[in-house]
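call fold(seq) -> C-alpha cells
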Amino acid sequence: MNQDFSGWQWTNEPAKWSADPADGVLRVTADARTDLWRVTHYGYSYDTGHVFGTPVAGDVRVVTTFVADYAEQYDQAGAALRVDEENWVKAGVEYVDGRLHVGAVVTRGFSDWSVTPLDGPVEAVTVELVREGDTVIVRYGVDGGEPAILLRLAYFPPGVPALAGVMCAAPEGQGFETRFTSVSVA
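ret:
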C-alpha cells in the first residue's frame, strides 16, 4: 500500500472495510442503495456514497488502482475530490447496462456524467485526478498501464479545502467489494 491512512476520514463510512498493511490492500464493501448524484435528469439527490480521503487545501494528485466485484447496474468505484455535497468530482469504473465503463461525474450544484465503455475484459483500472488551480484533470489506464488516457478536464473550485481519496457506491444493488491495491495522495 502506498498510503498511510492515519488522519483519513469517511464521508458515509461503510459497514465493512479494512486497510491491512500485511497484504497492502484497502478493502471496501459498498453498502446497498448508496450513491453520489445531484438532481440532473433523475430529479433526485443522493449523498450516501462512500468517500475515504484526506483533507487537502490546494493542488493535489490522487492515483488509485483497484479491482471490484461489480454485479448490479451503476455499481461504481474509483477516486474522488469532494468539497461538500454540491461540489465534487468522482471518476472510475461503473457497471452500466451489463458492461464496465470508465467515467466521471462532475458536480457543481448539478451532476453531469460522462462514460465510455472499456474494451474487452479488464482486470484492474488506475484512475488519476490532478487538481491544478481551478481545474481537475482525469486520466485512466487499464491492467497495469499508467493513467495516460485523458478522460475529462473540468472546473473545480480553487483554493478550497477538499477531501481527496477513493470512493465507491452501489445505487441499485446489494453492495459489492472493491479492492484498492494502490492509493496515493500527494
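The mean pLDDT is 95.
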